[in-house]
Amino acid sequence: MKTLVLANQKGGVGKSAVATLLAHHLVQKGQRVLAIDFDHQGNFSGALRRSKRPTAAGITADRLLTDAVTVMPSANFVVVTGDAALSMLEAQPTLHTPFARHLRAFLAAMEQHFDVCVIDTNPGPDIRVIAALASADFVLSPIQLNQEAMEGVSGLLNHPRAGVRKIKAVLNPKLQLIGLLPTMVESTPFQRANFLQIVQKYLPLMIRIGGGPGDFAAIPRRSAIAEAQAHGELLWEMKKTAARDAWKDIEPTIRALAAIVTGQRQDRAQPEVGHGTAA
Ligand SMILES: Nc1ncnc2c1ncn2[C@@H]1O[C@H](COP(=O)(O)OP(=O)(O)O)[C@@H](O)[C@H]1O
Ligand SMILES: [Mg+2]
Q1: Cβ proximity of 180 and 145 under 8 Å
Q2: Which of 5, 225, 231, 254 gets mutated to test ligand 1 (max ligand atoms within 8 A of its CB)?
Q3: Closest residue (by CA) to atom 26 of ligand 1?
Q4: Does residue 222 contact residue 254 with C-beta atoms inside 8 Å?
Q5: What ligand has the least distance to the C-alpha of 15?
Q6: pLDDT, tens digit, for every residue of 231-261?
Q7: Model's pTM, two decimal places?
Q8: Is the CB of 219 under 6 A from ligand 1?
Q9: Among candidate residues 65, 69, 60, 62, the one with its CA nearest the CA of residue 106
Q10: Which ligand lies nearest to the CA atom of residue 144 in the structure?
Q11: From atom 2 of ligand 1, which residue's Cα is the shortest distance away?
């Protein structure tokens, strides 16, 4: 089983929407998917549950940190819902190490039962994010193309507790940063300029999906994506043309991300997050 964590210290950047699209896509491609929602707002698990596709785990995600959980329902698509109890965990610092150990043991116990575990996280580098990164194989960071997002990239890499560099050095050397995924990209001149600026500044962190100069993974802003999320629909199953067009636009990105996580794409070098990287 490969574990992917979606992380960005900012809220509203499209983490949960990307997590939802990826989880449904992986299931569609025949992967056994375990979806875990570490955000107490529950936007990822909410969208999945509304779709009625996954089996509910029967426990909330906080229990994966607080208890020694070793069993999940026997199904090819299972969701562990996020709820309010998750936001209490940060305030129990003496238990943070056991929290991280519980999650690691749980994921190890799931190894034979699922192919991919997708973990969506809350904004804010707290114990949920740290525990998830401490046991994950991959981290993907959806970002919006604005000044704050650019500042957020530095936090993603360098935050003293939850930064990818720190986690790799201290807790989890196998963690791979897939890279930055610009989301809600609009084709305004302002956004285009920002996109170029980000690409130039963070080129090693951009995710290539083709050989052309602008072939980087990105998710455009499309109302159909928000609707799919709100109604629990699968974008590619929605009838209206706008949804089909949106899926056509994002499919190469979703497919490339799925291939990286499932190990079907080995041609890519891991982004360098050593001291030479910008940010
Ligand atoms: N590509 C997109 N186009 C249009 N709306 C989007 C897109 N991605 C996300 N949204 C919407 O924007 C809001 C915030 O996205 P969400 O995925 O919940 O962000 P986060 O998980 O980072 O807080 C939600 O209402 C969501 O449906
Ligand atoms: Mg979210």
Answers
A1: no
A2: 225
A3: 226
A4: no
A5: 1
A6: 999 999 999 999 999 999 999 999 999 999 9
A7: 0.95
A8: yes
A9: 69
A10: 1
A11: 221
CA of 18 to the centre of ligand 1 (A): 8
Instruction: Count the alpha carbons within 13 Å of 21 in the hemisphere toward its beta carbon.
Output: 29
Q: Which pLDDT score is estimated for 198?
A: 75
Tokens of 81: 């819902």
Q: How far is the CA of 276 from the centre of ligand 2 (A)?
A: 31
* Token pair listed for 170: 């201290």
| Residue to substitute in 6, 10, 16 for testing ligand 1 pocket (most ligand atoms within 8 angstroms of CB) | 16
At 67-113, the pLDDT tens digits run 999 999 999 999 999 999 999 999 999 999 999 999 999 999 999 99
Cβ burial of 90 (10 Å; 0-12, 13-18, 19+) is middle
What are the residues whose beta carbons fall under 8 Å from the beta carbon of 115, sequence distance 6 or more? 1, 2, 26, 31, 32, 33, 262
CATH superfamily of 2-261: P-loop containing nucleotide triphosphate hydrolases (3.40.50.300)
The arithmetic mean of pLDDT across residues 154-180, rounded, is 93
Q: Which ligand is nearest to the CA of 44?
A: 2
Per-residue pLDDT, 10: 85
Query: Which one-letter amino acid corresponds to residue 134?
Result: A
Whether pLDDT at 266 is above 70: no
Instruction: Delimit the domains of the chain by residue range.
Output: 2-261
